[in-house]
Design a protein that fits this description.
By secondary structure, the chain is α/β, with parallel strands linked by helices. It has 2 domains: 2-189, Rossmann fold, CATH 3.40.50; 202-276, no CATH class. The protein is 48% helix and 18% strand. The strands form 2 sheets. It has a 5-stranded parallel beta sheet, sandwiched between helices. It has a 5-stranded antiparallel beta sheet with strand order 9-8-7-6-10. Strand 6 (232-234) and strand 7 (240-250) form a beta hairpin. Helix 4 crosses helix 5. It is globular and about 50 Å long.
């Protein structure tokens, strides 16, 4: 599975290259492509375009210094355009900055804080979910836990450099935060609350995977369960009805139950339209 990794400026490049080397150690099916891999003499632009078209996942590393770089935004735009084809997942990883500090055009991507281990695990689960042969949830977490410290060590200096860029880029007294910035910061806090209060257990995941496997193979069932369990559900009126803890699929009908006892039955499209990652 091709994973296109985008970067701009030195700190972003260092983290992106370390991530590209680390990712296949966790998800062996992944084949990262990073533009610094392109050899001299290649038709450089054609190589970039070819790998953009082949990629199933796009991961962009943003720092305070590169967040407005035209080339990074070009690659992001190309990835977004290709999402209806082979592209299944678009992810923006923030290094040395918070998502609330970002005001660019990538807000519709899955946004991940590189310094947050739990957030990075969520990113790895999302990437694994797009694989043709995804790892089982337990094995994926074991691989991640075993190899996480290696990625942290390999990127430590670059993360410090990126953080220093952020301190130099916009002095605190000159930074005027918009209402949208403040909302993003609130959402970051809420997502952290979600991770801390989740009631989804290994047993929930196992039962869901077994129930879903009536309609799908094991790998697809696991990926589906991982993408739904732990999300929160709204009813038709937009009221929050709790965290999804049970899932089954029969004949294309999705049946879920939340920790508050709320029951949903309907199509996958309708279910996902009523899901949210905010815990209240």
């Amino acid at each position: 599975m091709k994973v296109f990794i985008s970067w701009s400026k030195s700190a972003s490049q260092s983290v992106a290259e370390a991530f590209a080397a680390w990712l296949p150690r966790v998800i062996q099916e992944c084949e990262p492509f990073i533009s610094s891999d392109t050899e001299k003499g290649d038709a450089w632009f054609d190589t970039i375009e070819k790998n953009l078209a082949e990629a199933r996942v796009g991961v962009l590393f943003l720092t305070p210094q590169n967040q407005n770089e035209p080339w990074l935004n070009y690659e992001a735009g190309a990835l977004r355009t290709l999402r209806t084809g082979n592209m299944k997942r678009l992810c923006a990883v923030f290094v040395g900055m918070k998502t609330a500090d970002y005001t660019g055009p990538l807000k519709n991507f899955q946004m991940t804080n590189f310094a947050d281990k739990a957030d990075m695990l969520k990113l790895i689960r999302a990437i694994n979910g797009t694989a043709e042969r995804p790892l089982e949830a337990q094995r994926l977490e074991e691989e991640f836990e075993e190899k996480w410290s290696r990625l942290v060590a390999d990127t430590q200096d670059a993360v410090l450099d990126a953080s220093a860029e952020g301190a130099d880029e916009v002095p605190a007294e000159q930074h005027t935060r918009s209402a949208e910035d403040k909302l993003d910061e609130v959402l970051d806090v809420l997502r952290e609350m979600r991770r801390e209060r989740s009631v989804v257990s290994t047993g929930h995941k196992y039962r869901a995977q077994q129930a879903v496997r009536e309609d799908q193979d094991r790998e697809s069932a696991q990926a589906l369960a991982d993408s739904i369990l732990g999300e929160y559900l709204l009813d038709e009126s937009g009221n929050h009805r709790g965290e999804i803890v049970e899932l089954s699929v029969k004949g294309g009908t999705y049946n879920v139950v939340t920790d508050e006892g709320f029951v949903f039955s309907g199509s996958e499209k309708l279910l996902r339209a009523q899901m949210t990652d905010i815990p209240f």
